[in-house]
Amino acid sequence: MIPLSWYLIVAAILFCIGLYGVLARRNAIGILMGIELMLNAVNINLIAFWRYITPEVLTGQVFALFVITVAAAEASIGLALIISIFRNRETVIVEDVDMMKW
Amino acid sequence: MDWAETLILLSPQLILVVWALLVLGLDLLVTKAKDSLAYLALAGLAPALGAAVYLLLQRTGQSLLSGMVQVDAYSLYFTVIACLASGLVILASMEYMKARTRYRGEFYGLLLLATLAMTLMAASTNLIMIYLSIEFMSLTSYVLVGYFRDDPKSSEGGLKYFLFGAVTSSLMLYGMSLMYGATGTTDLAEIATNLAAMHATMPPMRWLILPAILFMLAGFSFKMALVPFHQWSPDAYEGAPTPVATLLSVGPKAMGFSILLRVLITAVPLFQFDWVAILMGISLVTMTLGNLTAMRQTNIKRMLAYSSIAQAGYVLVGLVSLVPSSIGIQGVLLYLMAYLFTNAGAFIAVIAFSHVTNSDEIADYAGLVRRAPALAAVMVVFFMSLAGLPPTAGFVGKLLVFGAAVQAGYYYLAIVGVVNSVISVVYYFNVVRQMFFLPPTVEGRLSLPRFPMAAVIICVVLVLLIGLYPQPLIDLVSQSVTLLAVIP
Amino acid sequence: MENLVTLVPLIPIVPLLTFAIIVVFTRRNNKLSSYLAVAAIFISFLISMVIVFNAVAGMPHFAEEPAVHLTLLRIPTGATTLDIGVQIDPLTVALLFMVPTVCLMIFIYSIGYMEGDPRYSRFFAYICLFATGMLGLVVADNLLLLFISWEVMGLCSYLLIGFWFEKPEAMWAGLKAFITTRIGDVLLMLGMVILYSQTGALRFETVFEGVEHLAQTNPNLMFITALLVFGGAVGKSAQFPLHVWLPDAMEGPTPVSALIHAATMVAAGVFLVARMMPIFVVLAGMPALAWVAAIGAITAFFASTIAIAQDDIKRVLAYSTISQLGYMIMCLGIGGFVAAVFHLITHAFFKALLFLGSGSVIHGVGTNDMMEMGGLRKKMPYTFWTFLVGMLALAGVPPLAGFWSKDEILAIAFVQNPVVWVMGTLAAFVTAFYMTRQVCLTFAGEPRNEDIHAHESPPVMYVPLIVLAVGAALLGLLGVPADFPVLGPLLGNNPFHHFLAQQFHHWDYVHLPHVGFNASVMLISVVMALAGIGLGYLIYGRKPLGAGQRDPLERMGVIWTLLRNKYYIDEIYRATIIRAAIGVADLFLSFDQGIIDGIVNLIGKLTERWSWVSGLFDTYVIDGIVNGVGRVTSAVGQELRYIQTGRVQNYMIMVVISLLLLVGVFLYM
Predict the structure, then answer these.
(1) Do residue C499 and residue C410 come from a single domain?
(2) pTM, entire model
(3) Tell me: the pLDDT tens digits for B195-247?
(4) How far C629 CA lies from chain B's nearest CA (Å)?
(5) How far is it, in rounded angstroms, from Cα C158 to Cα C129?
(6) Choosing among C641, C648, C668, which should be mutated to test the B contact, i.e. which has the most B CBs within 10 A?
(7) Are B265 and B187 in contact (CB under 8 A)?
(8) Containing domain of residue C630, as a range?
(9) C75 has which bridge partners?
């Protein structure tokens, strides 16, 4: 059996990739995708922990399902906000969205 | 536990969910008299608040829904805060929203949903539920912040708030997954017992638990706008419709503290030494940075945003002063209630002002005392309370938290807190100076909107009442915290 | 040796780290980047040399154990584990002698050649990554690591061919190379999958043990598997019919052509077949090996003829490379494992030398067209003399390296398969001819273009040429046949053969022919080489071409046209395979935009798609890494004044950094 740590490492790497995307992408949609990656990394963690630590209780699975559901809701709200920004500014580059500062 | 009892205990939440759906549904039917929806929303909040107060006085304490939520004095206390905050905000938004957007029905519906989310945050005792309620709160507030979709500032605030919130919530989730992996459960109390059991048999898993705590802390701190997780707040407050900023500055912030306290004290008391140290550092930075930045602001909404960051730092002072008595935690609860009326009052005063002048610049407050003496007077009370001067609610709150710090032996924390309060006087009274000692740039009395002024008066009365006679509230909080698990 | 093997992973890892460092940190500083790259490959070179000298000195003793392993990673796969690691065996040692040496020379040369290029640092980053791939391939002890390295090289090859992507030809050429070699890669992967499913392992030794059983139970599958693996080599080593990408790959910078498309990467196909030799010979009658020999012989001969009629100095060398690789493949096909590897190594030296020489010429005259050159002998003396050494080595003039290695191949062919021998000998003749043509057109006579003022290249470029020329001249002496009169015993009875022949001692079913010195074969090959040179001299050297004069060979008429157009293979592909692909695409995608004008559209689309992908890669992966880091640091600086920048990503970076700091501090406490 593949050891638990491997899943955790994959999840950690995925999380970092997502985080990197969030920090480095300029396009808001790209950032959104980075966030999705981070959430998926969490899901891998949850499922792996569930399978290896408490396979008899479904907590991890349920948690992951909730995360997936909430992520969908979150994405739709995010896209709505991005559309509203685009209507106002004609841009989805988050760096350019800095009217308010200091 | 039978169903009837469950329903009674959850009645504030149930009332809110029914009412929110009612408002949203009626929004589709009612085309003309949108303001009636605001009254309807208020009418829904009243029974919810009543139920919460009733249950609070009943001194109930029950774990419900397979341990997902717990209805006890502690959670009910925060439920009361949530209902009050949202009631004040609805009052404040009536004229304000009417003047700015046609789509007002769902605004009130969303406000009720946000209130529901806040009450759930207060009651959650399971990581899954905590995540869901925080996310529920966030999702509604993202929409509320970006509510003026044609206003670039509003949508910018919404987007920034959203992106920041989504990232911190991912970080928090990662922490939660680690916590789940380390302990095999998401129930806060079980986490504590499992950790204790593991602690007895194995070497402490600091390397796993500490990152888990810190990552979760990121999500909670986002809600509380603690430094360094605070940067969304000035932009979101400035961009958001001001009533929404009001809500954000008092509601979710208080709920963040409720969750933080519950998680730290119920789930990871074993690591108290570590998280106290972390929060102490955060508290110092938050107070200082918030105050220093607030000094340079020219926009009053931004100033209040930074000021509320600093306020969260004061609250943390009480939170870390856990030993030797529960006075620190009591201070946290009391402070949050006092802060609710103070900050909401100040924000609503700003709403009233900007509703007629369409400006949020501090410079435009010049000579306000001649144009609207009542407004100027109440603002002074709020600023005194924010700065922690007697005889206001803010003074009582600060007294408790700094007193707890001294009692716990954190003298330097108390000193930094007091010094910061003094600094804050500078920028609060800069506004007072503008209002009282500078000539107005524009002449003529202001005719202030009715409903916000009503809210402001409620706030000012309560601020002074708590300041002058705090005993009932102190009794209430001491009763609320005794039910919160174990406090050393 | 147990200790030495622990050094082996460093050989590919050092360039990999350097790649990362250049991309992330030193990109802005061109000089530093290039020095870092050279330093990295120099470290790899030193480690490799330590291993080579120890191995040659008899440590480890390959006669006792086939290879020394170091397992780096154990992937659990149920009952067994999939071990990923590195190994030292004679073949690895031989390649470890050649690859880092050539890499080092080419890296140094690039410092001069790439001078002034706007993407200077990126170039060094890419070639570092490439070195990682090649060295990883050489030291891999299993098919998985080999395949990963193989793909890394493919990626680098693509990136470097299209390095000057402002030129549409370069971009197209990169695309063509990528897609064409991809066909081979898919075949190789299929072969790999079959081997894994049948033998349950990917480590070479275990696979070799497993295939013996497979060959008995399912000979057909074994045969197909061997052909699939060979398919990978056909793609990578540009063998017929997948050779079309290599000449176009000359659009890349010349050091790249020397490194990737002459000395190392294209030799990876040969290396793969050599490495996997047992799976080709395990079947009785060795049917798979016959295919290898046939493909190799065809490629060797036909590619050499195409080289006759090319005017582009690098394209001539490209076809020559294809032809020489065909030689090696052909030699493997007739069981000449040692000779093929020997030729691989000598060829790497003289071909890298020739490419770098041509690069020096291009650097000097500013064109690739040999018709524009002429008379460079006096203007570029270092380049000329070293080029001449390379040319004579390639032509097979004794006693230069190419002579000994080529002769060994022909000697084996003579015994094993006369047809192959005839093809090989003819190819040798043609090779000598076109090389003479090239040297005469480039260096002899007077300049044919008045506008070109050639100059010798800087020392940083010609010193590597000299080093490689010494290698090209003397390296053959390591492999002088043992029974060659006087010289054989004097030079240690063919030490190279002695060393490398240990490779497959441990597998009983591997019987490789051993062929001794054959005076008549050697004589014929020398005569052929001299005849080729002589003919070339008669046509091009005695009376050097003047300005505007046409190539005398055009008088050959149809044959010239055929050769000039590379047997129309590209056109045939366009008319058949690519057209068919478009048909299928039409069918499935139902483009309803009226008539699709064939190839142009499809290739255009693919290019567009691909350049988009590569653009993303460049913009987001490479630039992104750099900008990300830049943003973090600049944000940190700016925060001190205005923490609230208004940019939400700065806020988030603040969050992440603080969080990491907190975690760090509190874990430390």
Answers:
(1) yes
(2) 0.61
(3) 888 877 766 677 888 889 999 999 999 999 998 888 888 889 988 999 999 99
(4) 19
(5) 12
(6) C648
(7) no
(8) 572-657
(9) C82
